[in-house]
Amino acid sequence: MRLAVYRKATFNAAHRLHNPTWSDEKNQKVFGLCNNPNFHGHNYQLELKVVGEVDPETGYVIDLKIVSDLIKELITDRFDHRNLNLDVKEFQHLNPTVENIAIVIYDLLRERFDPKYELQVRLYETPRNFVDYPA
Amino acid sequence: MRLAVYRKATFNAAHRLHNPTWSDEKNQKVFGLCNNPNFHGHNYQLELKVVGEVDPETGYVIDLKIVSDLIKELITDRFDHRNLNLDVKEFQHLNPTVENIAIVIYDLLRERFDPKYELQVRLYETPRNFVDYPA
Amino acid sequence: MRLAVYRKATFNAAHRLHNPTWSDEKNQKVFGLCNNPNFHGHNYQLELKVVGEVDPETGYVIDLKIVSDLIKELITDRFDHRNLNLDVKEFQHLNPTVENIAIVIYDLLRERFDPKYELQVRLYETPRNFVDYPA
Amino acid sequence: MRLAVYRKATFNAAHRLHNPTWSDEKNQKVFGLCNNPNFHGHNYQLELKVVGEVDPETGYVIDLKIVSDLIKELITDRFDHRNLNLDVKEFQHLNPTVENIAIVIYDLLRERFDPKYELQVRLYETPRNFVDYPA
Amino acid sequence: MRLAVYRKATFNAAHRLHNPTWSDEKNQKVFGLCNNPNFHGHNYQLELKVVGEVDPETGYVIDLKIVSDLIKELITDRFDHRNLNLDVKEFQHLNPTVENIAIVIYDLLRERFDPKYELQVRLYETPRNFVDYPA
Amino acid sequence: MRLAVYRKATFNAAHRLHNPTWSDEKNQKVFGLCNNPNFHGHNYQLELKVVGEVDPETGYVIDLKIVSDLIKELITDRFDHRNLNLDVKEFQHLNPTVENIAIVIYDLLRERFDPKYELQVRLYETPRNFVDYPA
């Protein structure tokens, strides 16, 4: 049977929800306060789930040093203390909802992990609002 | 791939575990302190999971305002600061174990959400005792 | 210098806020949902602080077994899975607000602890509402 | 003896640490990533402590509705989903460190609370970094 | 539809990661600080998930007293305040990584639960590192 | 008015409670399971409180980089993944109760902080047992 290991990381970022193909009125109506043109921000908490077999030599599914190095290189070094809309190229043309941020994180990590591992991203925007991708 | 979004809510309620078809002795034996005829209570924490596709226009699976309005109308406005056994009609003939409360919450929400969304209820009776429905 | 040690305990109880010298209208106006005649309830979390000198022989301020036995005897055995208004004699003529519950707990514990220890009670009614006594 | 009651609130805001009397190099050296000109953000958690006597009629130190209304009017309605540097007048000429934000919050609340109450602000910038004012 | 109930327990234990078929250098290289020959330790938190049907007579999936008695007998009475490598026979020839501890716990519990229940073990080594078995 | 800033850190260590001037029977009687000769362990969480004035130039009480560097050098580099009794010289002749560990941490930090800062150590041995020094 396979086993899942989890690793947490955090990044503190500014963002704004906005669809550039809509009018200001529609953006305001749909996104409310989240549409503030001067941005607001969150302490995002990332929880990466990695599913695989236990290696009988180490007793590990994966060395968590590898996991944390990849999270640092691909996610926190690029997202932490940044403005997601202005500073992170993946959101130049993508609305940084917590859903879309989770999908971007998954895609960035997925292409660098061995395909033998199944991945899932849980991303908290606040302690009360969070998403899982894939579900 | 589908994505899950979560929304939390709380309600503070009194309840008592009791099976009216049993003797007092059997109720006492099976339910112990939870059978106290004068009731006890809990801070229940509800975590609703909604699974669906991301809407490319909004970047949302669902507008969480819709989710929180439904939770308020169907659950917290009816359960919060209530006695579940005496004040909530769903438990007039149903023992309000955390299992049964979770099933009632799921059924109430399920009939008002678009069938394209998959739902799951996690309900905490205490920080140490909680259930998921469906599993 | 003195050192503080802390011990936590929980009790799950029903209660109702009510002043019997007031009209029903005034009770309803002041206490709102908390005045529900059928009661509601909470998971109360107690955090007892005991301040004293470190005993050089044990390295303890106090044996926590003594602390937890006193909390069990005086508080949780009497309050847990009870209706505070109906089942606990200290609240027969005292409104069980979180403030008054904290004062009752402090007084019960104070008379059984050696006077060389300073005590403080923190009581959570919910994760968001709590009190310290004395301040 | 006096009793302390606590009330929590949250606001999600963008900010940037910057001293306009310093060079860009010095700002970068002292504030590091927090000096990012495009801002970053946090889920701030506010915990207001109100110390006073228990009113024998209500069993309350203060009606928490009054406390939460004042926090909403003075703090969360003005800080939540805002850019502290650009949108909140108190930080037009004051660096929005967590220390300075706590002092501003305390001063705003202090002038609207009855002087018989002692106040203290605890403000979390992240779950690991927080301050108390006054100490 | 089936329902999942959860039960938590904790045990505080010492351990050391070590593969006796490797050289000291390789153990040091792979396991780093976790290879310290004098051991280190953790507050392990166990979260057992039990999946089954709700019994219509009790409203329970399973009496949690049965669950907590089995966890006490098989796990906490044997692991708590122990050195996993030296005091627990299951780890005499098995490296006590959090993965392997979770598998041992699952196997011990699995053979004593009725096969109609599906089980899953979540084990936290720290608040940031945890595993699920089976995944 | 002065302001308090807090910084958290964790270390995972093994320990054993033992008074070498007592018989084995007395050690067993007083310290119970904590006296296990093969050690057990904990995830200790340290919360350092630093009280001072806010510097008007930076808006900081103290640069938290200085605080975290001192905690790393003096505490976590020396205590983390260690056996406190065998590997840390301060506990060669001092029983590593949570009280004594907190006092040692305070003394180590106190001599390296500017006297203008007031310090307090909060140390969690488990989420339920913790101490403050000084009280």
| Average pLDDT level of chain A | 97
Q: CA-to-CA gap between the ends of chain A?
A: 21 Å
Percentage of β-strand residues of chain A: 25-35%
Return the CATH topology of chain A: Tetrahydropterin Synthase, Chain A
Structural class of chain A: alpha+beta
Number of strands of chain A: 4
Q: Main interface pair?
A: A-D, 22 and 22 residues
Radius of gyration of chain A: 17 Å
Query: CATH homologous superfamily of chain A - what is it?
Result: 6-pyruvoyl tetrahydropterin synthase/QueD
**How many domains in all of chain A?**
1
Order of helices and strands of chain A: EHEHHHEE
* Helical run tally of chain A: 4
Strand order of the largest sheet of chain A: 1-2-3-4
What does this structure look like?
The structure is a homohexamer of 135-residue chains. Chain A has one domain (2-133): Tetrahydropterin Synthase, Chain A, CATH 3.30.479. In chain A, 30% of the residues lie in helices and 28% in strands. The first copy, chain A, has helices at residues 24-31, 64-79, 84-87, 98-110, and strands at 3-15, 40-52, 118-124, 129-133. Chain A has a four-stranded antiparallel sheet with strand order 1-2-3-4. In chain A, strand 3 and strand 4 form a beta hairpin. The radius of gyration of chain A is 17 Å and the shape is elongated. Chains in contact: A-B, A-D, A-E, B-C, B-E, C-D, C-F, D-F, E-F. The A-D interface holds A 10, 12-15, 33-34, 36, 38-43, 80-83, 86-87, 126-127 and D 10, 12-15, 33-34, 36, 38-43, 80-83, 86-87, 126-127. Strand 1 of chain A pairs antiparallel with strand 4 (129-133) of chain E.
